[in-house]
Amino acid sequence: MKHLILSMAAAFAVSFSSAPAATIETRTAPAGDGALTDSTGDGIVDRAMSLKADGEDREVHSGKIWRQNRKAVFEFELPELAAPVGKATLQLWLNGNNGCHPDKEGASGPDTDLYFYLAPEADGKIELTDDNGTKLGRALEAKPVRTAGKPLPAVRIDVTEAVREAAKAKSRWIGFRLEAAPDAPAGSAWRWRTSEFAAISGRRYNPLLTIEIE
Q1: Contact (Cβ atoms closer than 8 angstroms) between residue 87 and residue 125
Q2: HSE-CB of 138 using CA atoms within 13 angstroms
Q3: Residue 146 lies in a domain
Q4: Does the bond joining 151 to the residue before it have cis omega, within 30 degrees of 0?
Q5: Using an 8 Å Cβ cutoff, are 207 and 28 in contact?
Q6: What's the predicted TM-score (pTM) here?
Q7: CA distances from 17 to 25, 88, 145, 165, 204 (A)
Q8: Cα–Cα distance between 22 and 83 in angstroms, integer?
C-alpha cells in the first residue's frame, strides 16, 4: 500500500498569503472543515456538518465510534497555479491529550487513509457529495503519536500529487478527507482541530495547505 510522507512540525498562518521562496499558504474557513457521518453502518454517509462542537474543543473525528463511521473533511481554496508545483504539504493538528478517542495514554486512532477531491464537489462547503475522490494513501497508522511529557505535534502529510492534479484541472478548490481504513476495527477515532478551534485557541492551529512553486 502506498504510504504518504508523514512528519511532525509546528504551524503558522492566515488565509491566503504568499511568502518568500515562492511559497503559497491557504487555510480552511469554518464552512470548509467538518465531518461526514455514516450513522447507520450501511456504507453511505447521511450527515454532513461544518464542525463538531464538543464544549470548546471544536474538533472533527475520523474513525468508527458510537456505531458510526465518521470522516474528517478539510477544503482549501487554491490560487491560480501557473507555475509547476514543486511540493505541497497538508498540516493538521490533533486534539486532546493523546489526539484520539478514547483519550488515554498509549491509545491511538485507527489506521487512517487520506483521499482528495476537486471542484465542483470541493467548493468550500461540507456536503454529502464530498464522500468521493481519489485515495492518496495511508495518512496515519494505528499507533500512539504523543511522546510522554510533550504536547501533541502537528501532523504533516505530503499531498504534492493531489495539488498537481488540481493545478492540471484548474480547480479553484481542493478537498481532503480522512477516514478509517476499511478493515480498521471499531472503537477509536482521531480528533482533529478545525478553524473554529483556531479562532479560539490560536490561528497556528488552523488546517494549513502549503504549496511550493518551482
Answers
A1: no
A2: 14
A3: yes
A4: no
A5: yes
A6: 0.87
A7: 5, 15, 30, 21, 14
A8: 10
Are 128 and 65 spatial neighbours (Cβ–Cβ below 8 Å)?
A: no
Residue 158: CATH number of its domain: 2.60.120
Q: Is the bond preceding 84 in cis, omega lying within 30 degrees of 0?
A: no
- CA gap 205, 197 in Å, rounded: 7
Has residue 44 been placed in a domain? yes
Residue identified by cell 511568502 is 19
Instruction: Decide if 116 is inside a domain.
Output: yes
Whether residue 54 is contained in a domain is answered as yes
Q: Give Cβ neighbours of residue 87 (< 8 Å, ≥ 6 apart).
A: 158, 160, 211, 212
Which tens digit of pLDDT belongs to each residue from 22-43? 899 999 999 999 999 999 989 9
Asked if 211 and 88 touch (Cβ cutoff 8 Å), the reply is yes
In this structure, are strands 134-140 and 47-49 parallel, antiparallel, or unpaired? Answer: unpaired
- Number of structural domains found in the chain: 1
Over the stretch 52-95, which tens digit does the pLDDT of each residue have? 444 445 899 999 999 999 999 999 999 988 889 999 999 999 99
Distance CA 165, CA 174 (A): 10
Q: Following DSSP, what letter does each residue of 57-89 receive, concatenated?
A: --EEEEEEETTEEEEEEEEEE-----SPEEEEE
Could you list the residue range(s) of the whole structural domain that residue 44 is in? Answer: 6-213
